[in-house]
Fold this sequence. Notes:
The chain is mostly beta strands. It has one helix and 33 strands.
Amino acid sequence: MLRTRRDVPVRRRRGDLAAAAFLVLVLVVVAVVYGTHSPAAKTESVPAATPGTAPAAATAVPAGFAGAWRAPSAAAPVPVVAGPGVVTADGSTVVGREATTGAERWRYSRDRPLCTVAEGFGRALALYGSGDGEWCSELTALDADLGTRGPAANLDVRPGARLLASGSVVSANSRDYLETLRSDLVTTAQYGAVVAPAQPGRQPRPGCSYTSLALGGGRLGVIENCAADTGDRLTVLRPDGSGDADTPNVEFSTQLSARGVQLLAVSVDREAVLLPGPPELQILDRSGNQVGLIGLDVPESEIAPPADGIGATATDTARTYWWSGSRTIALDRTGLAPVWTLRGTLGPGTAYAGSWLVPVAAGIAVVDPLRGAVERTIPVDRGGYTGKVLLATQGGMLYEQRGSELVALRPG
């Protein structure tokens, strides 16, 4: 009987079997390498079991505040209030905490150090360093309530970077590079020394360094130090993602009259720049033209930009509050003109039940936000700590970032 082709026994050569075994081995190795080196490797993610509850809002400023809890949070430069609770970040771990007790609700940890953590898009944004320590490259969004992982992105910023959030934009900054992202963590703009540009030549000044920046009104302002200029340069970008990410949408760029200036705030159509010696506040319009020059009651030693390029500011619906290092200055939020100055402060302050609370050496000054008048001072014992104090609130709870520690205060 004739055999069909299908009936003929298949003879596998020894070489075929060896090749198949090699391919299997390669796949196993790839799987092991990916499992060892992927972002999911050596990651601990422990979400909350149930949704949290935010504390009730404050209806009045209390007679006093009492210590409630404290936790290390060296990777968070400001108090991170997100969702119904508070987030702390230290070492390699981000922890979502119950607002009133500090009890751990969720935890996220990696096998590498945190560069910084911030609130953005209603989430906790955790930026981790690379394995070689050269970059702050891995950004993860965590649900603020449950701690579950959301979008992720790979950035090209250096250690020391900060995350700034304003509405629909988050900015990550380095000394020579800026990157902005939208809520799904897709990059909307790159500016400066792009590591691997898709189209070379699209950056106007890739050799400049950045000393100060501010985000507001859908606009990003940056002070550039460029060797070819005789003074610092103010550049304002619109990082709305309307064009290609590697082609910056520049509203204007103008050379300033001095070096060592600091950008205090950016609004919808104004920029406030602090000029050195004697201290003056220069206000520019959205074309870079000066519309105001106002003397400020600030020591000349406090004019230089901070080391991370981000000024200590806070906002409410009517004002932007800037802390110089010894004074809190309220600026009109639209026109950015100074409204009042309060001496002897430890930070910009925060809104609380219709008042503005400002940290001072004796405790918390209760300030009329319209006039800047101190109505009373609530004693707070900080145990000898005398440095910068950054405030935030969650309901009636008050939080103080004291260096590398977050301290929670309850009305009492």
